[in-house]
């Protein structure tokens, strides 16, 4: 059976091989006192391992390979980090290896020591053609084990996303409100139009909007103008006024108009058209100056929800889905699910990041607690895990499931997954 090197890491870490009467390749008796600590950085695979060879106890590193010749393939013979390796664990021993001082590294061959049931469970997982590797087995895992690992994944997901937040914060020169505005714009795009919304926010900073905070028409003109929607000819008073205002503001701030062709309208309901989303976005900017500062000072989910309701969207959009194009009544306020998406993908993320940046645990906890209060997202990925028996009743858990699926299940990293490890350790 073929397997990856990380499977041998797993077998060694949890001592899932037959370890009675072990011997090194030179015939000396070997006893594993402690497998050591898995090293996820550069250097040997395990540190602080304790073994007994013959009558001598050793403490040091353990290196693991499929073939012992991989030692040379990876260049360990020239690396001082590997001088303290006390045992070389391999599946196939095809070459003796030596430290830099010329001493030979003891070798344990695990081929033939791996129980059939462990190999079977591993092969069943990594060879699975189900929607995710443990779709069949996960219902048999203790829910507390599943919940514990998912809790870890939420923090892992937020930490991964925080990298982009801190990069944007640096570009915003430490202005949290400006960085929040940028991510808020991206969220308003709801995947389909996330890129043009992001480009829009990148083309005009929050500071410019702040200079026109008392004039809704000018804010709307800046939003639609930068999005590229004011380049045509109009015959209605509202778009004509927007175009006039934008012409003045574009010249004043030396703005570069965006490409209107980037915006997607296909297969959408009118209330989800980018024009309606842009109108809502402009209304949010007008309604909530320095929004993130207000979010930091807010308390409940209800209060946070209120920031995104009753937006003063221009009445023009009540019966228009595009400039010069009329329709029946359009719902102008963001729906409940849309607001939840904003809270999950931007508000909770920024609370977490702000807490990390300022070393204030209360904001980290607020972001996580808020995820617990918000209903679970509904999508095909969440549905697949729920159908397999995983309880997913909050955005906290649905976000964890998305992280699990992307970083572990799709990558077949069952050996790095708390759930996969539990299944293999049965």
Query: Helical content, roughly?
Result: 40-55%
Overall geometry comes to: elongated
The major pleated sheet works out as:
7 strands, mixed
Instruction: Figure out the total of helices.
Output: 17
Q: N-to-C terminal Cα separation, in Å? A: 20 Å
Number of domains: 3
Q: pLDDT below 50 for ≥5 consecutive residues: which ranges?
A: none
Global mean pLDDT: 94
Proportion of residues in extended strands: 5-15%
Order of helices and strands: HEEEEEHEEHHHHHHHHHHEEHHHHH
Radius of gyration: 29 Å
Please give a quick description of this structure.
The protein has 426 residues and is α+β, with helices and mostly antiparallel strands. It contains 17 helices and nine strands.
Question: Can you tell me about this structure?
Answer:
The protein is α+β, with helices and mostly antiparallel strands and 426 residues long. The chain folds into 3 domains: 5-114, no CATH class; 130-171 and 338-426, no CATH class; 177-292 and 303-334, no CATH class. The chain contains 17 helices and 9 strands. The protein has helices spanning 5-13, 70-73, 116-126, 143-171, 176-188, 194-203, 206-210, 216-226, 237-253, 274-287, 291-297, 301-306, 336-358, 361-373, 380-387, 395-409, 418-424, and strands at 22-23, 29-34, 37-38, 46-53, 56-67, 85-92, 107-109, 320-322, 325-326. The longest helix is centred in the middle third of the chain and has 29 residues, at 143-171. It is elongated. The mean pLDDT is 94.
């Amino acid at each position: 059976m073929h397997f990856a090197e990380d499977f041998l890491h797993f077998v060694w870490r949890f001592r899932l091989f037959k370890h009675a009467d072990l011997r090194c390749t030179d015939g000396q008796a070997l006893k594993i006192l402690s497998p050591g600590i898995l090293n996820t950085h550069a250097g040997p695979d395990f540190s602080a391992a304790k073994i007994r060879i013959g009558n001598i106890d050793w403490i040091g590193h353990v290196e693991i390979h499929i073939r012992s010749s991989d030692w040379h393939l990876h260049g360990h013979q020239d690396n001082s980090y590997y001088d303290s390796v006390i045992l070389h664990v391999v599946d196939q021993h095809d070459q003796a290896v030596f430290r830099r001082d010329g001493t030979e590294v003891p070798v344990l061959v695990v081929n033939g020591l791996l129980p059939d049931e462990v190999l079977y469970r591993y092969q069943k997982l990594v060879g699975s053609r189900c929607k995710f590797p443990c779709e069949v087995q996960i219902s048999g895992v203790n829910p507390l084990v599943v919940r514990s690992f998912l809790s870890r994944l939420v923090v892992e997901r937020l930490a991964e996303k925080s990298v982009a937040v801190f990069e944007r914060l640096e570009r915003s020169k430490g202005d949290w409100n400006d960085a929040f505005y940028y991510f808020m714009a991206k969220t308003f795009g709801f995947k389909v139009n996330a890129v043009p919304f992001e480009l829009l926010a990148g083309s005009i900073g929050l500071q410019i909007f702040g200079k026109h905070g008392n004039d809704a028409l000018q804010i709307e003109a800046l939003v639609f103008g930068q999005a590229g929607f004011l380049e045509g000819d109009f015959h209605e008073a509202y778009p004509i006024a927007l175009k006039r205002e934008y012409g003045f503001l574009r010249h004043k701030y030396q703005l570069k108009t965006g490409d209107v062709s980037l915006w997607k309208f296909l297969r959408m309901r009118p209330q989800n058209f980018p024009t309606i989303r842009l109108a809502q976005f402009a209304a949010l900017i007008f309604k909530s100056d320095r929004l993130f500062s207000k979010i930091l000072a807010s308390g409940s989910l209800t209060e946070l929800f209120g920031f995104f309701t009753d937006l003063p969207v221009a009445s023009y959009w009540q019966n228009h889905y595009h400039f010069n194009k009329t329709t029946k009544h359009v719902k102008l306020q963001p729906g409940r699910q849309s607001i939840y998406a904003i809270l999950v993908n931007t508000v909770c993320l920024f609370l977490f990041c702000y807490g990390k940046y300022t070393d204030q645990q209360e904001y980290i906890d607020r972001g996580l607690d808020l995820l617990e209060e918000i209903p679970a997202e509904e999508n095909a990925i969440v549905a697949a895990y729920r159908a397999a028996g995983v309880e997913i009743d909050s955005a906290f858990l649905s976000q964890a499931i998305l992280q699990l699926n992307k970083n572990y299940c799709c990558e077949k990293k069952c050996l790095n997954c708390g759930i996969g490890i539990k299944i293999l350790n049965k």
